[in-house]
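User: quick one - fold this with NAP bound?
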Amino acid sequence: MSIRAWQAQQLGTPAEVLTLREAPSPRPGAGQVRVAVRASAVNFADTLMCRGEYQVRPEPPFVPGLEVCGDVLEVGEGLTHVAVGDRVLGGTAVPHGGFATECLMEASKTFAAPAGLDDAASAALMIGYQTGWFGLHRRAGLREGETLLVHAASGGVGSAAVQLGKAAGARVIGVVGGQDKVAVAQRMGCDVVVDRRSEDIIARVKEVTDGRGADVVYEPVGGPAYTASTKCIAFEGRIVVVGFASGTIPEPRLNHAMVKNYSILGLHWGLYEQHDPQAVRDCHDELVRLADAGRIEPLVAERFGFEQVPEALTRIAGGSSTGRIVVESG
Ligand SMILES: NC(=O)c1ccc[n+]([C@@H]2O[C@H](COP(=O)([O-])OP(=O)(O)OC[C@H]3O[C@@H](n4cnc5c(N)ncnc54)[C@H](OP(=O)(O)O)[C@@H]3O)[C@@H](O)[C@H]2O)c1
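Assistant: Sure. Structure tokens for the protein plus NAP:
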């Protein structure tokens, strides 16, 4: 059987290097499942992977696409928690990623898809929300009543952190770039939204916290967003370093962290699968509970057809998208 797959033939921008090819149906190894893809959520990391700038660096040719919703076609040896025909969501096994009619998934990152979410929203339930949950709860220990500052609050991981912060009882300040994004961040539940293009982030955060600053900062942008965070972080505040969408990796001043008494916490969600797989499963169960209760719902802002994968990846790399971009197979 052959499938259709968007392969990166070499490293470079997605529009330059992705080509649609016929390929053999992938064979699942031990601990993997083969899945017919219903929907594939686009992550900023897909563009980094195509350029060879992500933590995971597969050799070309490879198929990107880190998270999907689909139907199980075949189950690797020794697996009992998934069966052929199950509708599942979760993480793929690149080089056989999700921008294909069939992909491989790691069984350790394969979960039942909630009936209440459609395929596109289900595809977007893992990376953004698990990253948010581990960042806010496990790393930063966010407490009810605290103030949470989320950078890029209308974006993929940012919008998930906003919803999870509200679900945890925090007061959420969202920072976004542009008026159209202000409306999205408000819809996601932010109590206060700061437009970084027209407002001073530090002054606004201090103003709305009576000078105290934010207890927890969720920071997927880097560059000026990180610097601003250090200037409006509260006493005993925690800055969770999530990513560098701006392209600039900050160099923290440790003397500043010391004199202001704040913590800088790194977060690489993907490592929890190796170090604490049970916590990843527990987190999924909690996310499904929150989704069933209507407390969280991935914001699928743009849907692309399967033929438009390079356009979908170009769109997220530009930094102007909101919520999640999803490629649908149907
Ligand atoms: N640590 C982890 O485990 C983990 C897990 C998942 C994702 N991530 C990382 O989180 C970051 C965000 O991913 P995402 O999927 O949420 O992407 P996204 O939706 O595109 O969010 C990125 C946002 O960053 C802001 N931004 C500011 N300056 C930018 C610039 N120069 N270029 C592009 N964007 C800029 C933009 O929002 P505004 O204009 O509103 O500021 C943009 O929408 C990525 O770096 C990704 O690799 C990390």
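One thing worth noting: The chain has two domains: 2-125+298-328, 128-270.
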